[in-house]
Amino acid sequence: MKELERIEKGLKESNTLLYKTDDKGLACSFVNGGLVVDSFVIEDNVIADALAKKGVNGVVEGSNFSMLRSNYDWFSLHVKTKRLYETLK
Predict the structure, then answer these.
(1) Which residues pair with 21 in a beta bridge?
(2) Element at 59 (helix H, strand E)
(3) 1 pLDDT tier (thresholds 50, 70, 90)
(4) CA-to-CA distance for 86 and 89, rounded, in angstroms?
(5) pTM for this structure?
(6) SS3 for 54?
(7) How many other CB atoms sit within 10 Å of the CB of residue 16?
């Protein structure tokens, strides 16, 4: 769940999210004013898939970013529910 906490913190401190899939997972960078505020790799596939669907071509900005920030509780609940479902399968 530390990845979800870092996403929440990044959403509060930035205005753009850049992401790219690499061999370790989904590399994320939160950007504010052209400077990277936080950068980390999400290894959890459930979180990575859900987050990748929020952006276009590896970028979440503008209204998409604002929607993710304001609806983060729903995003987090969706991810936790999906992870629980995968565990119970």
Answers:
(1) 26
(2) strand 59-61
(3) confident
(4) 5
(5) 0.89
(6) coil
(7) 19
